[in-house]
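testing teh design pipeline on a random one, pls ignore if ur not involved
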């Protein structure tokens, strides 16, 4: 049995074998978009690893051959002292599990390869920063701990970077009883094992249980040439929706982070900028991104989502999937795609579920001078949540046994999954629309507010401070995932009225079912679905 496939336009296998991420990369190749060269270790290899407790027979030889092919495709040497090849090692299950499994960046930057990268670029701080990022992501993957070594690299001080690298390497040696290998083959083999193993971490199992995802699917592992968003001032990373996921409006939406790598967007530790700033800073990258979104949306005949990095002014697409909008955004996209003659009315009706209708009339905190607004951030998932403040994931689980809680954190990570699952709403001091907290909140349909400027969380004392005011754990708050408001107590809540898009969709539903009597909205849509299924 072959365990590895080169990612190319010719690959024919399904997402069940390749994983959703690699399957999307195959699509990007077919659409003629710029994608880093790479290969995928199939989900079958993960299942064999989990079953047998070791890498399956033949995988090591296939990894060696795949790396040789990647060296040939890129003109670089894996771990070499001249033109070194560094790779990302990412998870990619057949179903989306955002942020639940491990990713390692810059793998292959051994001490010798790091010196080679410094010589090639003439930028030693960049090379050391990239080595530290490798060590931090590798340590996080093999220890299942949140390792933030990259924070020390922001200042660019060589002594601080060297100290941070040593601290991370010491952590791995202490937790794993072996050092971080300085041999690229051993690095890659251990990284693949770590990604396989992350399928069975408590956070991943919790997510699958909450979303009724089978536990026996396994994850693929994608290995790709690194694109360095932290290379220089003309480099960066970001995420983009072809349409606004909050409203469904036909305008690109997302965020960008200049001079950083992708994990800085996801972690929320760095302040992102609105996607539109890319048009001002890098107009050629912006134009190419818009064209990529146009091609992908034309293929899906639906809104889409991409992750991208640009290095020295050159754009690379790293991931793609359909937009998966909910609530009013899903209704608006479906009706406007009919207007654009992309889909027919019958398909628009089938794309909207009764579950979507339950979220169309989004609750909001009512405007009032009596509302005691504690803080404002960015609304990351629409809706209103009321609960008592919890400042740790463990505290959220404990307190949620008695009453609803709102988890308030500086930022969240996959290791907070149990707390996110227990909470009714989420607030973070840092991060934007693509941060871990925002992505998980949208996946779980929980109201969230992120990027609350000036918010500090003292988990030790159980206190939250913002705007000169301090509230303790257990304080009752209400959050508005649309406006980004965090209010004390329980202010009055109102719901949006039905808009023209919903009225039009339901009129189509009545035409299909032939029933124009007065019924609730879900019944009208259900009747149309039933009629369409029997055609």
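output:
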């Amino acid at each position: 049995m072959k365990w590895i496939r080169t990612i190319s336009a010719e690959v024919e296998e399904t997402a069940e074998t390749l994983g959703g991420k690699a399957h999307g990369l195959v699509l990007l190749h077919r659409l003629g978009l710029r994608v880093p060269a790479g290969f995928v270790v199939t989900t079958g290899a993960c299942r064999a690893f989990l079953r047998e407790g070791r890498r399956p027979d033949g995988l090591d030889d296939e990894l060696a051959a795949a790396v040789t092919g990647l060296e040939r495709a890129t003109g670089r040497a894996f771990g070499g002292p001249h033109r070194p090849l560094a790779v990302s090692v990412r998870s990619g299950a057949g179903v989306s599990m955002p942020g639940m499994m491990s990713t390692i960046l810059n793998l292959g930057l051994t001490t010798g390869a790091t010196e080679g990268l410094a010589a090639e670029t003439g930028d030693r701080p960049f090379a050391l920063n990239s080595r530290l990022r490798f060590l931090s992501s590798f340590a996080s993957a093999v220890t299942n701990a949140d390792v933030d070594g990259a924070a020390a690299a922001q200042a660019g001080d060589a002594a601080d970077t060297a100290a941070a690298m040593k601290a991370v390497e010491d952590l791995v040696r202490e937790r794993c009883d072996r050092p971080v290998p300085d041999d690229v083959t051993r690095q890659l083999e251990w990284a693949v094992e770590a990604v396989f193993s992350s399928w069975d971490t408590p956070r991943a199992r919790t997510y699958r249980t909450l979303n009724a995802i089978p536990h026996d699917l396994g994850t693929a592992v994608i290995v790709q040439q690194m694109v360095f968003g932290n290379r220089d001032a003309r480099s960066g990373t970001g995420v983009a929706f072809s349409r606004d996921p909050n409203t469904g409006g036909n305008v690109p939406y997302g965020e960008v982070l200049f001079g950083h790598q992708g994990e800085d967007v996801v972690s929320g530790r760095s302040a992102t900028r609105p996607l539109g700033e890319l048009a001002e800073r890098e107009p050629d990258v912006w134009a190419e991104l818009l064209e990529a979104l146009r091609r992908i949306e034309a293929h899906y005949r639906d809104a889409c989502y991409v992750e991208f990095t640009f290095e020295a002014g050159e754009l690379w697409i790293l991931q793609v999937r359909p937009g998966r909008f909910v609530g009013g955004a899903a209704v608006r996209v479906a009706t406007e795609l009919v207007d654009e003659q992309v889909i027919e009315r019958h398909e628009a009706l089938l794309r909207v579920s009764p579950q979507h209708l339950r979220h169309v009339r989004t609750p909001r905190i009512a405007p009032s001078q009596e509302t005691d607004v504690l803080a404002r951030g960015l609304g990351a998932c629409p809706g209103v949540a009321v609960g008592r403040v919890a400042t740790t994931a463990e505290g959220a689980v404990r307190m949620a046994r008695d009453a609803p809680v709102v988890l308030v954190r500086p930022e969240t990570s996959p290791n907070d999954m149990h707390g996110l699952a227990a909470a009714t709403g989420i607030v973070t001091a840092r991060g934007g629309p693509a941060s871990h907290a925002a992505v998980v909140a949208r996946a779980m349909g929980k109201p969230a507010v992120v990027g609350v400027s000036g918010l500090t969380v003292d988990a030790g004392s159980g206190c939250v401070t913002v705007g000169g005011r301090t509230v303790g754990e257990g304080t009752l708050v209400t959050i508005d995932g649309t406006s980004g408001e965090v209010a004390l107590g329980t202010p009055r809540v109102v719901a949006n009225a039905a808009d023209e898009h919903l009225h039009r969709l339901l009129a189509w539903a009545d035409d299909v079912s032939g029933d124009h009597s007065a019924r609730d909205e879900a019944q009208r849509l259900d009747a149309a679905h039933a009629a369409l299924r029997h055609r």
